[in-house]
Amino acid sequence: MIGPIVAMRALKTIPEPVSNFIFFLPQYVFPTVWKQTGGMDARAYEWWSLPVWGLLMVAFGYLSRNWRLPFVALASVTVFVAVIVIFQIGILLSPFTFGLDGP
Fold first, then answer.
1. What is the dihedral of CA 87, 35, 44, 48, to 10 degrees?
2. Is 42 in contact with 30 (CB distance < 8 Å)?
3. In this predicted model, what pLDDT tens digit does every residue of 5-17 receive, in sequence order?
4. Is 84 helix (H, G, I), strand (E, B) or coil?
5. Which of 7, 39, 72, 88 is the 20 to 30 A CA-CA neighbour of 62?
6. How far, CA to CA in Å, does 39 sit from each of 36, 45, 62, 88, 101?
7. Using CA atoms, how far apart are residues 6 and 2, in angstroms rounded to an integer?
């Protein structure tokens, strides 16, 4: 992922909130460090999200095959954000939390 690399290289030139956003955003999309409430850390493998996003990509491509490009672009961003929000709500409702892994 290019976000953490950009954040590390530009650390002294960009504001800290922007650097944190660039560095940690991929971990909100693909969380990897899980903790059970009252338990120990458990590391999830990064590959588990590949089938989820792959199925979403195939389903979206199939359903939007006859749409015009501007609508597809807007709908894809909306679906991407919606999936992230739904996933984060699912984490909040589960007995697990996820932690950010970084410096």
1. -20
2. no
3. 666 666 667 777 7
4. helix
5. 88
6. 5, 18, 41, 20, 17
7. 6
